[in-house]
Specification:
The structure holds two protein chains of two kinds. Helix content of chain A is 0%, strand content 52%. By secondary structure, chain A is an all-beta fold. In chain A, strands 2, 4, 5, 9, 10 and 11 form a six-stranded mixed β-sheet that branches. In chain A, strands 1-3-8-7-6 form a five-stranded antiparallel β-sheet, with no helix packed on it. The radius of gyration of chain B is 14 Å and the shape is globular. The chains are: A mainly beta, B mainly beta.
Chain lengths: 113, 117
C-alpha cells in the first residue's frame, strides 16, 4: 500500500514567519513530488514540484527532497494571511504518471495576522 | 495555461437517479482522472484513463463507471445515485512522466459538489 503521510494540523504560524510543511512517503520508486494548495471549497492548485534531491526555490516557496529518508518538505517564507489553506503533498507511483498520484490528506495551515 | 472544466459546480440529485459528470481539458493530455474528496478521507481515486476508450479502476470504483470517447473529455457516471455518494468530485488531467517534459503533475478542474437526497 503506497502511503503519503502529513500532519493534519492545524499549523499556526505568525505573519511574516517561515511556515514548514512536511511529508513522508512509502514508495521508494516514486519519481516526482508535488505540493498543492487548496483553499476551502476550491480545487487543489499545483504550486511546486521537485524530482531531484535537494532544494528547489520558486519565489517565497522552497521544496526540499530527501529520497534516502523518503521525505519532502515545503517552506513558505514571509508567510501571508493569503497562504492560509490546506497543503497537499502528492507523489507519483513508481512506473510513471499514468497511474496517477498518491495524495496525503493535507496539512491545514493558518497564518495569524 | 492548462484548463480543465467541469460541467457543473453544484448538483443536487435524488437517490436512484443516473448522474453524469463531465470533464473537458484543453491541453491534449493523455491521462485523465476522477477523484472524490471527503472531509477526513482526503482525495480518493475513482477511475482514470490513459487513452481514448481506455479506463482503469482506482481505489473506490464501486457504484461508478466512466467513459472516454474523445481525448479531451472524460465522463463519470453514477448509475444509481445513493446518499453515500454525496461528495466533492474532482477531475484532473496530466501528461505522463517523461512525455513532453511532463513529470506527472496533475491539473484539476474546479470540482462538482454533488448532493444526493
Amino acid at each position: 500500500q503506497k502511503e503519503v503521510e502529513q500532519n493534519s494540523g492545524p499549523l499556526s504560524v505568525p505573519e511574516g514567519a517561515i511556515a514548514s510543511l512536511n511529508c513522508t512517503y512509502s514508495d521508494r520508486g516514486s519519481q516526482s513530488f508535488f505540493w498543492y494548495r487548496q483553499y476551502s471549497g476550491k480545487s487543489p492548485e499545483l504550486i511546486m514540484f521537485i524530482y531531484s534531491n535537494g532544494d528547489k526555490e520558486d519565489g517565497r516557496f522552497t521544496a526540499q527532497l530527501n529520497k534516502a529518508s523518503q521525505y519532502v518538505s515545503l517552506l513558505i517564507r514571509d508567510s501571508q494571511p493569503s497562504d492560509s489553506a490546506t497543503y497537499l503533498c502528492a507523489v507519483t507511483h513508481s512506473g510513471g504518471g499514468a497511474d496517477g498520484l498518491t495524495f496525503g490528506k493535507g496539512t491545514h495551515l493558518i497564518i495569524q495576522p | 495555461d492548462v484548463k480543465v472544466t467541469q460541467s457543473s459546480r453544484y448538483l443536487v440529485k435524488r437517490t436512484g437517479e443516473k448522474v453524469f459528470l463531465e470533464c473537458v481539458q484543453d491541453m491534449d493530455h493523455e491521462n485523465m482522472f476522477w477523484y472524490r474528496q471527503d472531509p477526513g478521507l482526503g482525495l480518493r481515486l475513482i477511475y482514470f484513463s490513459y487513452d481514448v476508450k481506455m479506463k482503469e479502476k482506482g481505489d473506490i470504483p464501486e457504484g461508478y463507471s466512466v467513459s472516454r470517447e474523445k481525448k479531451e473529455r472524460f465522463s463519470l457516471i453514477l448509475e444509481s445515485a445513493s446518499t453515500n455518494q454525496t461528495s466533492m468530485y474532482l477531475c484532473a488531467s496530466s501528461l505522463s512522466f517523461g512525455e513532453l517534459a511532463g513529470f506527472g503533475e496533475q491539473y484539476f478542474g474546479p470540482g462538482t459538489r454533488l448532493t444526493v437526497t
